[in-house]
Give the backbone structure.
Amino acid sequence: MEPTSSKRNLNQDVALDPKRIRSDQDHPLIAFLSECQLQLYTNRPSKLSAEYEMEAQQDILSKLQDENNNKMDWFLSNLEEYLEDQTRLFYALMSMQAEDFDSNIGLPANSPIQLLLNIKEIQEKIIDALLAKLLEVMYEDEIIIDEEQKSCNMGLLLIYQFKWMDCPIDSLDIINKLFETVKVLPKNLQRELIRLLPEMIDDSKHEQVGKLLRQFQDSNADLIGPIIAALTNLNILPQTETEIRESLTKGLQAFHFEDLPDVIKFILQSIPKNTAVAVEIISKLRNHINLPNRSMLLTVDSKGDAIDSCAEKLLNVIETAIRFKKSIADGWIKVIDSLTTALELNLIDIFVLIIAYSQPNYCRSIIKIFKKKSQDYKSITNLLSTCFKDYSQLLPRYLRNMLSIADSLSQSTQDVIRDLGCHFYISIFSMKNTNYQQEVIGSFLTHIGSGNQYEADSAFNVLKQLAKENLESLKTFAVLILGVMEFIDNLTESQVKSLYYILCRIAFSENGNDSIQDDIHIILRKQLTHSKINYRLMGVTGGAMAVSCLASRRSSQQNVDDNNRSTAAKDALTQATELLELLYKSCEGFPEVAALLYDELADIITDNEIDTSVKTWISELIVTTFQDNYLVEVNELPSCDELPTCLKYGLDNPEDSTIAVNLLPKLLSELKKSNFSENTSTSFASFASQFHLLWTCEKYQRENLDEIDALLGCPVILADNSKITAYSELSREFQIAISVSLIYCLNWFREVIGAFASYNDAEIKGKILSRIKAMTELETELIQLLNDFPSRISLIQKLDLGAFKKLIHVEKPLKLLIASKNKNKGKDDVSISQDLKKPAAKEKVTITFNRYYLRELNTEIFNILSCGKVTCSILDSGLNTESVTVIDIQPPQLELIIQDLCIKLSTKFKIYSIIPESKKIEHQAMRLFSKLKTADFAKIFVQLIPTICQNLEAIHASLQTEENKEADAMSDKDSVILDDVVNGHIVSSYSYLLGCLILFFEWSESHQSEGQQLIQDALSFIASRTNTIDKNTPLSTLHEKCYKYLEKFLPSLPNFMCATKFIRLLQAVNVIRKDKIFNFEISTVAMHCLKKPWPDSSNFSKSIYKKQIAFLLRLYLQGLKEPLTTLEGIANDSLPEATKKSKTTEYSTLTKSTFPIYYQTLLEYLVESLKNLVMDSSSWRGDELNKLIHLQSHCNLLYTLVNLVKVLDKRPVMLSVIKGGHGFIDIFLRYAMPPLDKLFRAQKDVILTILKAMQQSTRYLHHVCGHSKNEKDSALTKFVPLLKKKLEVFVYRVKIMLAVNNCHAAFWVGNLKNRDIQGQEIISESNEADDDTSVADGEESLVNSEDEMTDEENSSSEDDSSDD
């Protein structure tokens, strides 16, 4: 136990001992040193009379050496006696003053003692005296010197005398004495003395000091910081350095956080310039170091400051290592990149990535890592939030790096990557520094003005989030954001809405900006009165936002009496009402503008963000206008003499039906008034939107729709098909009117279904099912009508401001497209009606109907899937049952609902591979659905899984029955087989059902913590279809039962696309458990699908089918134990057979059109397999021969695949071999050649065989390069230089290896002629001018002279082959 420290006043000690009071001249040491130009004082700092301290040292040494040996002893004994006095000691340790010396040259020593220490001859004795004195005062923490109450730590002052010694210590005796002294000193003095050791000790003794410190470290873990700091500055042998590094790495967990900077500095400095070694060390290092989570520590300021200081030192150490040692930067980035999930990242990794981004060579790699880790979005954003929250004071120095990272991520086309970039921006903005916030706002404005929709959307999303969470800080930059209004013409509808939301939040919130309010009012009035519709639409969007913000002020005071309401709230309500009136007036004569206004108001009412009086005003207005505009009494139906009409799709008893929707007559009259011009707008453009607002208000006021439930079953006035003999006999105007009326009727039905979808009443559900059935009938009728009259489509698409432009898609045949292009060559704009006016009789156009551009279906409609059969009763006037109807979902209706579910899953989970078109769906098309959170929709879907499984089973049974019927039809002519239309709906529904399950199981967030329960629930629902499942059933059992359940659907797969989706579903389910057994089973299923004949094989030439074939082939190979054997079989047998007319290959999916995709996939898999084989150099140890045999197999397969170019020399095949050959040779040079160098002497024959196989491939690759250049195909030639460079490097690399191992006879050099892929020599101008054996001049001289490697025994045969 250490004695307690003392605190003494030296003046009091002197007063108590009068004998110690002397004049300066009384002590002999003072007189002696004064003769040597050094004047000592006992009450003030000493003075140096000499110009240079070296003069004083020479005088002292000469005087000591002139006399006998007793003079040295006399000097040392007087020095010890002089230093006994604490005051003398203090001033002897203080810095000296020079006498009349102003020059900057030859500065005096720090103290008289340090001057004496630099005299080599007396250094050892002086050190002994100082160490003895140190032991006397080591427990005195503070000593008061004079009347000014100056205090000092005498022990530290003694230790500092050894700092920056001109004559370092080179005596082992003194070094041993130092370490003996260190062992007994207090901890604070131990730390300081150990840190000074590198400055005290001569370089020749650093190795011995390092070993002593190594021994001292084992028993003093609490001194690891200063010990490592000393070791870092010592010149020790690499072996000792390695031992210390390994010892430190093992004991990292035992060190205190404040010691980590020194420890990490030593470890990083000791890493050699070898990336592989750096990766190995850093992998161990990063598992034991991390910045502490401040939220888990005690909130003590001193402790927090200490952590900040240590964290800053640690980051400085890492930054220095990354900046000046490439192997460390490469190694750390590779280690981070190798982590499978973002959960394995820690705070240090985040800082390393941010720090390393300042190095230009690593920018792309770091961005790739962030993109890769963004797939686990929740984990990495939580880590970033912790980083910004706990260590915000360390981040400003890396601000530029973070902004650049955020900028790069925000430019990605993937939503999740852009979201990560936005998280960076939000975190930087939350640092509450105006300069940083201004940088962020400037970046947002740059993204908005970039012209890239993805970037602009991300920027607006972040600004919206800041407007919600950090509004006060955002108000500072209101003028900058308002400047975006100048470019509003270039913004999309959703971006305009976001911009107005941000500005209105800034302007109309509490303590809002008055000047911004005035600007917004001016802009809105200009837009709402503009003559162009697009500006009025912008004005409506902004006006609705302004109303929402103005009325929301009032919402917090709704329960307060009118008399007590603040004046500001009343003014806001008045402004909101006036603005609503202005919005309503601006819609007069513009139905499209009215439609947008109704939808915006419905959104506001749904969000409950508007005052009750305003809602009442809207409700009264909408009810009266809707009834007057679109509804008529059944007894007073409007007449339409020119076109026969009738009531259709009425669901109620005709005697009880009192109202009907006046659709076709009203539409026809409006079209006539406009003379059917192209830019006609009808009131029906706002028909569905107005009803949406109507039922929204009704539901808000009465919490039900009982008052308007008659609209669900009321009939619609449409064309009477029974009285129309043929549509072709009708005029062009009537054809257009009927087509448009069907579209509006579809939107009406979809909106009505959405309104009543939440009802559980059987009668309501029956009517909803009837409406869904009517929708499918209307779609069929409409598509048939448009197919018969395609020339009318162009005009229909231009009605109502192009509302139907994306709804109807025209797919023209290839011949018609070519003819149209040739005919209209040179014309910039050709309408569809001109292209299709006189189509060829055999070349009919195909019309497709994009349902997702109709009115949005409510998510509650999916509950109808589980209702089964519904019984509806129709009552007569006496309330007696007149008739009973049983309704259930038929294949067309099932397809419609499941397709909508699949589209919603795709857009919400942001997975667009199942339905690529869903990526293009605009925000306007899914207004209601976009408000639903992803997790909430996932919960809805999980509850639908039993119903989905039920429908899958029903379709499976139906398809199995259908196959049996087809088999029986050969013998039984009376067998009834489903027609192609119904069968098409069933197959399509099957595909969408599988797609829904795929989207859920591939949802990235489902594998995170909050999605684990949803996954387990989903697996439980699926597994319960086989037998009863307990709540405590483990996940592995659920996974196995789920897999077995899904496997039974394999026999009923109707086509190839359904088969690929089915296998993708199996793979998505298997990812949850990652079981290798199931990988093999999935591989077997993939093989079955590749070999099975499919009815849609004629579509294999399409790109989407080729992608699926590549997916299945890769999956098949990945699950095999010996994939190279299968790959060799396909390459040697199946691929050559595919190009023959009499095809006998066992793979039905392998045809001449799919040959390139097979070839590309096999070559890519071979390159990937080679990379896995040779990447890990440590796996070669002890298994060298087996590795070499596998490497030889890869090289032989490369030669086989390269030679297949002769079978089918198409551009895709050539491109694949050029890219694949480059990748194979690159990996071979990087990772295979170093082990071959080491094993060459032991395995010479095997390695020469490998090189020979490679030489055969490289020779033919040269021919491919020459052929590509001769053909002058730019798509191929741009990749040729890279391949040629690798071929040349390979030649010289092999040449070096063989020369180093004295195997010159194993290879010889010959001239390789320039040939095409068939082996024919390519004659060029240089060939004609030169000899046949000469090498082409210029660029080709290096790549056309190939080094031919062969054994001595085969040299003659190889010579013959060189001319082939």
Q: What stands out?
A: The first helix runs from residue 10 to 16. DSSP finds 60 helices and 16 strands in the chain. The radius of gyration is 43 Å.
